[in-house]
Amino acid sequence: MIGVRVAGENELDFAEGVGALIEEIVAIDAELSTPPFYFVTQIEDKTYTDILIGLQEKND
C-alpha cells in the first residue's frame, strides 16, 4: 500500500497530492490492487486528507 497526506481543502492541494502518488506508482512500476481510500482528519484548524492505494507487483 502506498499513500500520501494532503494538507488543505482546495482542489489544487488535492491534485498535487494525487499527482505525487501517481508519479511514485509509475516510478516503482506497480499495479493497483485496490481502489483509492480517502480519510479526512481535522487537527485543530487544519484539514488533512490521507489517500491510500493498494499495490501489487506487475505480472509481465
Task: Walk me through what this model shows.
By secondary structure, this protein is of the alpha+beta class. Helix content is 28%, strand content 45%. It is built from 1 helix and 5 strands, in the order βαββββ. The chain has one helix at 11-27, and strands spanning 2-7, 30-32, 37-43, 46-53, 55-57. The protein has a 3-stranded antiparallel beta sheet with strand order 1-4-3, with helices on one face. Strands 2-5 form a two-stranded antiparallel ribbon. The radius of gyration is 13 Å and the shape is elongated. The two termini are 20 Å apart. The model has no long low-confidence stretch (mean pLDDT 90).
Helicity range of the residues? Answer: 25-40%
Specify the number of helices: 1
Q: What is the distance, rounded to the nearest whole angstrom, between the alpha carbons of the first and last residues? A: 20 Å
Number of strands: 5
Largest sheet: 3 strands, antiparallel
Classify the secondary structure makeup into a structural class.
alpha+beta
Unreliable parts: none
Quote the average pLDDT: 90
- Please write the string of helix (H) and strand (E) elements: EHEEEE
SSE layout:
Elements lengths: L1 E6 L3 H17 L2 E3 L4 E7 L2 E8 L1 E3 L3
Antiparallel strand pairs: 1-4, 2-5, 3-4
Quickly describe the structure.
This protein has 60 residues and is an alpha+beta fold. The protein has one helix spanning 11-27; strands spanning 2-7, 30-32, 37-43, 46-53, 55-57.
